[in-house]
Write a structure and sequence with these properties.
Blueprint (H helix, E strand, L loop, with lengths): L6 E5 L5 H14 L4 E6 L7 H6 L5 E6 L10 H21 L4 E5 L3 H4 L5 H9 L6 E5 L5 H6 L2 E4 L20
Parallel strand pairs: 1-5, 1-6, 2-3, 2-4, 4-5
Length: 173
């Protein structure tokens, strides 16, 4: 019997959306599953999870961003990179080579007007039945929430950054 894949969303303003998705990736890898991570918006910076990913079999990792968008200066370039990343996501989903695909920070693409949310809905609707997909990012569109099997909201109660404490290697990145 073929397993039925899940659609999972980790959203909200709190810390831990990507971390939770990567925990699921680690779990899947432990069972010999093939995993793909596509990171939107995040740039080429050094992240501990990327360093570890290089050492793991059955894990493909793609960076489809130039860094978080805080200024509107290069918005068209950011948009183009995001659209290229979405095309890559389409190819990876259609390939039927993976058991789990993580689309990290994808919820921002409709938010910034880079992509219509219906394109993400269509991607999910046309995925292989056995494939699980995790979407992460703040402000998940209600249409994504509606089609998901599981949605978790990360709520920020207190964050070190708000107290002037900078991000720490091995904890936040």
């Amino acid at each position: 019997m073929t397993e039925h894949g899940r659609v999972i969303i980790n959203t909200g303003n709190g810390k831990g959306k990507t971390t939770a998705a990567l925990g699921t990736a680690f779990r899947a890898l432990g069972y010999g599953k093939k995993v793909c991570v596509i990171q939107f918006l995040k740039g080429q910076g050094e992240y501990g999870e990327r360093r570890m990913a290089e050492k793991l079999e059955n894990l493909d990792w793609f960076i489809c961003g130039k860094g978080y968008i805080f200024k509107k200066e290069n918005i068209e370039e950011d948009r183009q990179v995001a659209l290229e990343g979405f095309q890559l996501a389409r190819e990876k989903v259609a390939s039927d080579r993976y058991d789990l695909i993580i689309l990290d920070e994808i919820t921002y693409l409709p938010h910034y007007g880079f992509l219509d949310v219906e394109q993400i809905v269509e991607l999910i609707a046309n995925k292989p039945d056995r494939l699980s997909i995790i979407l992460t990012g703040r402000d998940a569109d209600p249409r994504l929430v509606e089609i998901a099997d599981t949605v978790s909201g990360m709520e920020s109660i207190k964050h070190a950054y708000e107290q002037g404490i900078k991000a720490q290697k091995g904890i936040e990145f």
